[in-house]
Each structure stands twice: as C-alpha cells, then as structure tokens.
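Table S2 (text version). Query chain:
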Amino acid sequence: MLQILFPHPYQIEVSKLRQQLNEAHLAWATEWKARQDEFKIENIRFFHDPLWNKRNFSLQAAHDGATWFWRATRVFLTWGVASI
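Corresponding structure-token output:
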C-alpha cells in the first residue's frame, strides 16, 4: 500500500552514445576554457560633460524640454494629436 503512495525513485538509463557525447562535450569545454586568455576589466574613465542634459539629442533634454528643439517638437506633436 505504501509503495503506491511512495514509489521508488526513478532511474534514468542514459544511452552509451549520449554518455560519450556528454564526455566529449565536457572534454571540449575544459580544453576551450584552458585556452582562453584571462579576461581583465580595465578601469576606463570617461570625460564628464557638464552639459550632458542640455544636448539636443539627449533623452533627458527631451524629457525636460530644456532645448528649443524639444519644445518645438512637443508643440508640433501636441497640435498634431489634437487635430486628429
């Protein structure tokens, strides 16, 4: 009765071909990793642009409407949507 509720754990038989494939892949992966150069992250410093949010094609400038270009774009879009 208890065997119906708690059956023995399943055992999966792996075919010999699949086992050889897994071993070949593991051997290839370890060899490939051994051949790779050490990856190093260099400390790259970027020049800080104090006017980054005032540039014409800056997303922040588009959101804030900080330049004449984005203010005009917003006006045209508002009138275009209102005319629909």
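Notes on Table S2: Helices lie at 2-5, 16-35, 59-64, 68-82. The first helix runs from residue 2 to 5.
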